[in-house]
Amino acid sequence: MKIGHIIVPAGDLDAQLAFYSALGLTTKFRDGDRYAALTDGAVTIGLADASQQPVPGQVVLTVQVDDLDALLVDRPEIPVEVGPHERRAVLTDPAGNPVVLYERLPS
After folding, report:
1. Among the four residues 31, 54, 83, 101, which has the most C-beta atoms within 10 Å?
2. CATH superfamily of 2-104
3. What CA–CA distance (Å, rounded) separates 17 from 47?
């Protein structure tokens, strides 16, 4: 298990890239105006437009896990979504903050 990245809603990707770059973060990649990833070398921040936000309008912590099914065995009510690169489930912590657990799909 490891912290995957923190997803931050982005209305104006260019402006947010400029802001976080000025703080010293390095752009890892950019996918048009939909998504960009920045890092300090340890943590990745994903700037996401509405189409790329797992919980619209909220900052989301993502955690990569080895076995998503094992972690959700006692929570069958939580749906698992399958994307092109991962399987994921959205949970909330006790304070109501969204957390995405995800398992990479084999390439």
Report:
1. 101
2. 2,3-Dihydroxybiphenyl 1,2-Dioxygenase, domain 1 (3.10.180.10)
3. 8
Looking at residue 71, the DSSP 8-state letter turns out to be: H
Sheet of 98-104: strands edge to edge?
26-31, 35-39, 44-48, 2-9, 60-64, 98-104, 86-92, 81-82
Domains of the chain, residue spans: 2-104
Helical H runs in 1-107?
A: 13-22, 68-71
Q: Is 12 helix (H, G, I), strand (E, B) or coil?
A: coil
Question: In this structure, what token pair is assigned to residue 23?
Answer: 């703080």
- Chain segment 60-74, per-residue pLDDT in tens: 999 999 999 999 999
> What pLDDT does residue 1 have?
84
